Amino acid sequence: MRTNPVLAFITSLLAASLFSGCASLPHYVQLGRDFSVEPIFTNGIILPQYRYFYNGPETEPTALLALDRAWTLDGLYWTEINLTEAQLKKWLREFNLARGHYDDWAHMRISYDGMRVPGPDGQQIGAIYARYGQVSVRYGAEKHLTIVGPDAPPGAAFRD
Predict the structure, then answer these.
(1) Which of 64, 121, 73, 68 is nearest to 94 (CA)?
(2) Residues 80, 42: Cα–Cα separation, whole Å
(3) Residue 81: inside a domain, yes or no?
(4) What tens digit of pLDDT does each residue of 105-152 get?
(5) Which range marks the domain in which residue 51 is found?
(6) In whole angstroms, how far apart are CA 57 and each of 50, 82, 93?
(7) Is residue 18 assigned to a domain?
(8) Cross-strand pairs, 68
(9) Is residue 14 a part of any domain in this protein?
(10) Structurally, how many domains does the chain consist of?
(11) What is d(CA 146, CA 133) in angstroms, rounded to the nearest whole number?
């Protein structure tokens, strides 16, 4: 009988997590929609307490991130930008033009939504304004974090 390599890999991961204990697992959070943080972006004002990042191509980002200056963003998914009010307003115009159009890749209507980025203690350390809602945060040591996403909902890339 032949062993399924994917099943064997998943089984070994589960076994490793059982033997190593949960204390060493990193802290993850799945972000959800929060209308209260949208004005951080939609007011068109750059707030000095935040560093700004974008995700995707600079000409048409899929998301914007405002992150408290006390935190360090790790990973390759975001590009830091010295955001100006003119650039922010340009992106907001593009987002508004795209809103309501059909996204062929995600098979859904385009909508940009705000998401609150909490710290490990639950206090807000940033905000995201994103086209897709699948965003995860992984907290590291010494106020480091990695933000993965935004991604389209599961299965969105599969075409009929």
Answers:
(1) 64
(2) 19
(3) yes
(4) 666 677 788 999 999 999 999 999 988 778 889 999 999 999 988 875
(5) 26-151
(6) 21, 16, 16
(7) no
(8) 50
(9) no
(10) 1
(11) 16
Encoding tokens for residue 50? 């935040």
SS (H, E, C) the chain: CCCCHHHHHHHHHHHHHHHHCHHHCCEEEECCECHHHCHHHHCCCCCCCEEEEEECCCCCCCEEEEEECCCEEECCCCEEECCCHHHHHHHHHHHHHHCCCEECCCCEECCCEEEEEECCCCCEEEEEEECCCEEEEEECCCCEEEEEEEECCCCCCCCC
pLDDT band at 30 (very low <50, low <70, confident <90, very high): confident
- pLDDT for the residue numbered 18: 39
In a domain, 129, yes or no: yes
Alpha carbon separation from 71 to 14, 51, 76, 124, 142 (Å, rounded): 32, 9, 16, 11, 8
pLDDT tens for 84-113 read 999 999 999 988 877 766 666 666 677 788
Q: Please give the single-letter amino acid code of residue 124.
A: Q
**Would you say residue 64 has pLDDT above 50?**
yes
Amino acid at position 36, single letter? S
Q: Is the pLDDT of residue 158 over 50?
A: no
d(C-alpha 77, C-alpha 145), whole Å: 12
